[in-house]
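To fix ideas, we quote verbatim one protein's residues and fold tokens.
>
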Amino acid sequence: MIELGVLLIFLGVAAGVGTGVIFLIVGEMRGAPFVATDKRLLESMFAGIILKPQDTFVDLGSGDGRIVLWAAKKFGCRSVGYEIHPWLVWWSRWKARENKLKKAEFKREDFWKADISLADCVFCYLVPRSMERLGLKLEREGKRGMTVISRAFEIKRWKDKLILRKEVMGKRVYVYTMP
């Protein structure tokens, strides 16, 4: 006979794994699953990017919020993260309050439906098949001079907008600007 404690542990682990799998599948369907960006990459990925306190930085699929928090702290600009996973949004908001970052905001919203027309700089770490769709969204909604930073994958149809392609700690980074 299985002990009650062992059964409860098994059920807890199964529920956790099941929830994780569901969020991975939903994330993949929406743009990308959550994969954290190594904090050591941030300075190198954003080298040469200048944001002023009056600018707006947007992270599409902000995950645990580390890039939004970093941008708010580093540049002092309004930094907005869009994320559909409720626990990641809660965690990000908690970290913003804990670090007293009033310019960091997190919205539990599908970034495909978000208005990004005020963004001066957009960061994304999506899957390849989402990049072309993102390119179309940014062309429709993005403002002139907006910088777009993509970790890992390019927007193939944006070759004329590509201003920098670099390797950072073995990871590709693409930087574009909207004419």
Confidence is low (pLDDT under 50) at residues 17-30. The CA atoms of residues 137 and 178 lie 12 Å apart. The domain at 39-177 is CATH 3.40.50.150 (Rossmann fold). The longest strand covers residues 162-168.
